[in-house]
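GSCFA domain-containing protein, pasting as requested.
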Amino acid sequence: MELQTRIPLTPSDNPIDYQSKLVLLGSCFVENIGAKLDYFKFQNLQNPFGILFHPVAIENLVQRAIEEKTYQQEEIFEQDGIWRCFDAHSDLRSDNPEAMLHLLNQRLKGAKVGLETSSHIVITLGTAWVYGHNTSGRMVANCHKVPQKQFTKRLLSVTEIEASLDQMVKLIQKVNPKAQIIFTISPVRHLKDGFIENQRSKAQLITALHQIINGHNVPYFPSYEIMMDELRDYRFYGKDMVHPNQLAVDYIWERFRSVWISENAFSVMEEVDAVQKGLLHRPFNPDSEAHQKFKTSLRNKITYLQERYPFMKFG
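Structure tokens follow.
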């Protein structure tokens, strides 16, 4: 008896292994997949400007990084003693304007290096709703709780999204033609926009994105569809009933792994997992001979991994 409909997935012929270098950009679902990649010690750069929800914000980061368009004083603003930038998430902030500009421009440099040297770039789109800053006329990545009257909210058209994604792909392919771009739609529902409005938003993203996928022959991983069709139950959501819970994240990660992680990496992932669990171990008697042997064995496992993969760092 089948109690679940499953989306058919085909393993990639260009999978991720421990030699791969990844860049992950976009909505908060990037953090879910990124946390898994961090745990298993894959080489990756995640959201250098913090979470970016809509395609124009991601395009802006990609373009500025590649074109080395550094941030200037007039592009940041002070609010309650803290300096921020409308192009970045609120995690990027400082109480000093020079330090804020330095932070933004350092992150831009890191993004440029990542985009130019990565083997895989995962881009996750969250919403098609955007806020235009009335004074500058620019679409912002984050409103930073600035009064609503300073912005105009609207839904990006399919044409606008398609143009933004097309520009994004072309920019990346120009500087890194070998990079494997992977698109996905975030399974997180933006219900603060409204139930119907969220569905309209996702529909716009999906329609535009599939035009790009067909036009540029880039792959799509169905995170949103897996959440909606394979995990059709609120037991897979967090307490807010909006974000996937850990069980759902683990499930979608396993589906992602089945498509995008090379089988050659599985044995190393198991070794890393054993080390990670060992580091979390809390002994009843830290001074016992058994625990000393356990610590020695754990150090040997870490050394063995780091000899083969020097980029791996363990806490």
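Note for the archive: The first strand starts at residue 21 and ends at 26.
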